Amino acid sequence: MPIHLQAEPGDYAPTVIIPGDPIRATKIAARFDGGLESTRQVNANRGLVGYTGTVEGVPVSVQVTMMGSPTTGIVVEELLMLGVRTLIRVGTTGAFPPLQIGDVVVATASAGWTGFANVVGGGEPSAPAADLGVVLALREAAQAKGLTTHTGPIVTSDTFYGDPNPAGVTRWGKRGYLSVEMEAAALFLLAMRERAAGRPVRAGAILTVSDVLFYPDSPEAAQFEGKPFFRPPEDEVNARVDRTIGAALAAAAALGREV
Q1: Active-site residue among 103, 211, 217, 235?
Q2: Could you tell me the residue ranges of all domains in the chain?
Q3: 115-142 pLDDT per residue, tens
Q4: How far apart are CA 71 and CA 67, in angstroms?
């Protein structure tokens, strides 16, 4: 049984939303049917808060992963032990132009530029992909909310600061990747492994653009005094994330009806 999620089978719904931020997890639970008072907290161990309730009458849970692939891997593995079958990552991402602050990225796949991907992938190149059904549900829900939505591949990195490559992280943008974050590849790798073993696990990710990563020689970079990225005030970021959460909740309910 799980070590870090101190819960039992049945405590989590088959469909789980997985943000990285514990405050965001509680805010998501507060948007379940009946608000936070109508949810059940199913884990608090190690600060990994998790709640179960309903969305549009459909059982849904939310479980925080914290930041980065290692903790995401632990949480996802333990959710799988507890019978979870659909996982939706909700979070923020740094995007490449021409994407803009507040846009939404629905990831089709994520390049695992991480130690976790190297270990789980056996040291070989991997292209972990999201489940197509989850991708389509997330895109449809985001568009229905009027969000500017981009669908395509992203990058999962182990670092937030200090890329030692002289070309910087923007080299990924020049290859056609939409954005960079820190968890999706781990989620997709584990879900693909489960499906290869014949278990009906599916995963996806919907992300709010919280930073725009400028190319060093771009006019935008000069406008922001050569800084590698632009990020608005946190209250503005959170307001835009709240809109994305609404789309994730609608998609979770739709996907939960299929279970």
Answers
A1: 211
A2: 15-258
A3: 999 999 899 988 899 999 999 999 999 9
A4: 7
Evaluate if pTM is beyond 0.90: yes
CATH code for the domain defined by 15-258: 3.40.50.1580
What one-character-per-residue DSSP string does 135-156 give? HHHHHHHHHHTT--EEEEEEEE
The torsion of the CA quartet 248, 249, 251, 253, rounded to 10 degrees, works out to 160
Question: pLDDT per residue over 20-55, tens digit each?
Answer: 999 999 999 999 999 999 999 999 999 999 999 999
Active site residue 163: no
Residue 236 half-sphere exposure toward CB, CA atoms < 13 A: 10
